[in-house]
Amino acid sequence: MGLVTDLEQAVAKLAARRHGVVVATITGDRVEVRGTAGLDASTRFEIGSVTKVFTALTLARLVVAGAVTLDEPLRDFGFPVPTRGGAPITLRHLATHTSGLPRLPTGMLLGALLRPSQPDPYAGCSSLMLSKSLERTRLSAEPGRKFRYSNFGAGLLGLALSRRTGLNYEALVAREISGVLRLTATSVAGAVTQGYRKVGRPVPPWNLADLTGAGGLRSTVADLAVVVRAQWDPESELAPAAEAALGVEHRVNPFLTARLGWFSRRVKGSSEQFFHNGGTGGFVSFVGFDRERRVGVVALSDTRRPVDGAAFELLTALPSGR
């Protein structure tokens, strides 16, 4: 099948039971985009946890510049950090989800269970609230030992980097990532298309307050395609940070490895695939790529229904971009 046919089939598959979707394929330097419901490459979406990629790449940029180190303790950034087994939580642990911190700030989980449809659930996550949550947190494992996905940890990483640089998260990402790659629509602020819990059920936008580094960015397929190309382009200004981020490994299980901001998996008959997905109250996102074959896929939907399956199938089927 041709490239466009594969893309069109993926979009048709994803269009079912979703208000709208936009998908991009990246093969080398070529980008193809298809959308539904009037959505296109310039439509802005909440990208949820794909924000963690930007947070980790910002960390990698600062490490390359010598402003921080991966093994610098979180306590050095003014947080009341819990310990277990005598090992401190470091920036590396936060970026690879091996800190032992819970998925959500302490005190949020019960509220999330009692009010699953609550709009804007992270809006109260101020730096003060996060510090108080840390004081009450008991780690599930010694830092560095076990993988436990943590929005709490990723948000603290973004906040720590902001404290070190004196810039708020949006300004920091603009300086280290968006400005470097000339992204035009990636930011915390600004309007997005309407999101839906399911077709016909619109929901309001999310605001992650000081937990923004975990999932607060908004972006477009066009911008995210630029980020994907930078992962294999040796001439990109982001290349040293991309190498640093992908060079860090923590084995989650025999099939999955955590990197700085990314996950990776090996697929039979294919080379290693790197990816991250995300979701908010009314949006889902997927960004994946294969560095060896120089191909990638970005899929964004305005409906909270996963796109991962079709996105992975498309990524695996793409012809090499070399």
In DSSP terms, counting alpha (H) and pi (I) runs of 4 or more, how many helices? 10
Residue share in β-strands: 15-25%
Structural class: alpha+beta
Percent helix: 25-40%
Rg for CA atoms: 19 Å
| Order of helical and strand elements | HEEEHHHHHHEEEHHEEEEEEH
**CATH-assigned fold name:** Beta-lactamase
**What can be said about the biggest beta sheet?**
8 strands, antiparallel
Number of strands: 12
What do these coordinates show?
- The strands form three sheets. The chain has an eight-stranded antiparallel sheet, sandwiched between helices. It has a two-stranded antiparallel sheet with strand order 3-6. A two-stranded antiparallel sheet has the order 4-5.
- It is an alpha+beta fold.
- The protein has one domain: 3-Layer(aba) Sandwich (Beta-lactamase).
- Helix 2 crosses helix 6, helix 2 crosses helix 7 and helix 2 crosses helix 9.
- The model has no long low-confidence stretch (mean pLDDT 94).
- Pfam families: Beta-lactamase.
- This is CubicO group peptidase (Beta-lactamase class C family).
- InterPro entries: AmpC-like (IPR050491), Beta-lactam-related (IPR001466), Beta-lactam/transpept-like (IPR012338).
